[in-house]
Amino acid sequence: MAIRVGIFGYGNLGRGVEQAIRRNPDMELVGVFSRRDPAKVKIKTPGVSVYSEDALVNQEVPMDVLILCGGSATDLPVQGPKYAALYNIIDSFDTHAHIPEHFADVDAAAKKAGKIGIISCGWDPGMFSLNRVYASAVLPGGTPYTFWGKGVSQGHSDAVRRIDGVLDARQYTIPVPAALEAVRAGKAPELTTREKHTRECFVVAAEGADLARIENEIKTMPNYFDEYDTTVHFISAEEMARDHAGLPHGGSVLYSGVTGADSENTHVIEYSLKLDSNPEFTGSVLVAFARAAYRLNKEGQCGGRTVLDIAPAYLSPMSGEELRAHML
Amino acid sequence: MAIRVGIFGYGNLGRGVEQAIRRNPDMELVGVFSRRDPAKVKIKTPGVSVYSEDALVNQEVPMDVLILCGGSATDLPVQGPKYAALYNIIDSFDTHAHIPEHFADVDAAAKKAGKIGIISCGWDPGMFSLNRVYASAVLPGGTPYTFWGKGVSQGHSDAVRRIDGVLDARQYTIPVPAALEAVRAGKAPELTTREKHTRECFVVAAEGADLARIENEIKTMPNYFDEYDTTVHFISAEEMARDHAGLPHGGSVLYSGVTGADSENTHVIEYSLKLDSNPEFTGSVLVAFARAAYRLNKEGQCGGRTVLDIAPAYLSPMSGEELRAHML
């Protein structure tokens, strides 16, 4: 019998999860749950219904894992513990500073209910976190680096959209090639924020808007842009739709460390992602870890987990024997 | 109290493990064991003794984990099960075709003794295996690639050394740049053995040896060279000592897969290693997993394991709280 999966929240990420489930024959989508009017939510999987949040609370649809696809700011801190009390859950909570408290909340609820709750799953946090931990455990005392992009930052795009006179905006985060090359060469450089990434904005402005003022407001925006070299391009709505409709992203976790009696040998580890669709890749990671959540709970385990707590074999549909014969 | 580690076998890998232990303050080398005369084995860690194999069999030195640093052809198939009956062990068994039977042997012995036995740990098998499993679980149906090099293949170097008239040899395995680039671009090319790697040999020949015959014997050697484009350079013993003393290696595990309703989005995952010293990096991986072996056994677990069966958190000296706060 397939692993029965529910999706709560049908934005970009929920749609990415839906696509990923289709590519895993051992998994089955049993329902999409939404706070919007279910009648107005059209999904892509034939034969699967859309339900209100009440149906989740009332456990109307039997399922093995619920994938929470809400936002980290206000949705997941509430939904994580609430639904870990009812289902095995998994989320992509990505506010790094608040991970410890979110973990504690989900852990307590999941333990009490005898369920598994995996938080902060995706690529950063997620696949990048795994690589940070593997690298630093293998080469203690080395230097870690994370580069993001080239890719669309939705948070930065939203920040630009909030400026007066801006109709639409897309912000790309771009690693500085010289910085990447120095790290790859094992030089372990010290890099400032400005030396690691540049930012490039494509902006559709309202007719008659003061473009110089908009550009200045972007470049000087605290936290988002003031510590970076930023380029601003004003384009038409047509150009935005034609050239910037996708949500590509990616990046690299690099780590360099030394070994040898005199630290004479340098080693560089790099994990890189080039993603045409950030939400579809994130959804794919969530689905692989949903398989792990189901299996862990079936073994009788419960409580909070992160990607760091889960042996890789739990993610694969292959058995231990198959993995040893074909994948080691 | 530090984790007490023993090393059995003091060749390149054993010396690499010794160096790695020094960089992990929670670990302590308690003894090096050798089949050579212990009086003739000089190690680099002050205050640590060298013992005969008898001392291992008689359990003369209390330890938490024994790291087996012998060869895969004849040493490890015997030593793995033999010492898993007495200690938590870990090895770098790398004959891919025989992993299932080696696992079964170590698993049976370790279960019976209540110990943990981790096999096939290093970078391939090891870190590369982890990345193959993570990538294929996240993007099912994608295309995996493994490239090795640029680096010294000890097996191929040994094969050249066995040719009549060859005094010394070093063989470098080199990925074909065009193949790597096509994979990185997400083109998922079909590649023959010849299209993926070239081989470059540096050979010191005996005086008066027939160089054309040696070159021909190398290039046509079945399994080792006949399916590759191989370049042969004859050099002096001085040049060999000056330019080819190191054991650098590395490589990349690449994986490309698609998502989306019409498979319209391509994703490329790459894990790359650039290693100045193959045995010191492999030793560093073994030591990180030795920490896991100790912890798993302390929890009461026993039996055979591979890197795929071990949650990443077990490798790190950090606690779960520290990992969630700083590494996710």
Explained architecture:
The structure is a homodimer of 328-residue chains. Chain A is α/β, with parallel strands linked by helices and 328 residues long. Helices cover 36% and strands 26% of the residues of chain A. Chain A contains 12 helices and 14 strands. In chain A, the strands form 3 sheets. A 7-stranded parallel β-sheet of chain A has the order 3-2-1-4-5-6-14, with helices on both faces. The first copy, chain A, has a 4-stranded mixed β-sheet with strand order 8-9-10-11. In chain A, strand 12 and strand 13 (265-275) form a beta hairpin. In chain A, helix 1 crosses helix 11 and helix 3 runs parallel beside helix 4. The radius of gyration of chain A is 22 Å and the shape is globular. The two termini of chain A are 28 Å apart. The model of chain A has no long low-confidence stretch (mean pLDDT 97). Chains A and B meet through helix 1, helix 4, helix 5, strand 13 and helix 11 of A and helix 1, helix 4, helix 5, strand 13 and helix 11 of B.
List keywords for this structure.
26% strand, alpha/beta, 14 strands, 328 residues, homodimer
Give a quick rundown of the structure.
Two copies of one chain form a homodimer. Chain A is globular and about 55 Å long.
How does the SSE layout of this entry go?
Two copies of one chain form a homodimer.
Chain A: E1 3-8, H1 12-22, E2 27-34, E3 50-52, H2 53-57, E4 65-68, H3 75-84, E5 89-90, H4 99-113, E6 116-118, H5 127-138, E7 143-148, E8 151-152, H6 154-161, E9 166-175, H7 177-184, H8 193-196, E10 197-205, H9 211-219, E11 229-234, H10 237-243, E12 249-259, E13 265-275, H11 278-298, E14 303-305, H12 320-326
Parallel strand pairs in A: 1-2, 1-4, 2-3, 4-5, 5-6, 6-14, 10-11
Antiparallel strand pairs in A: 7-12, 8-9, 9-10, 12-13
Helix pairs in contact in A: 1-11, 3-4
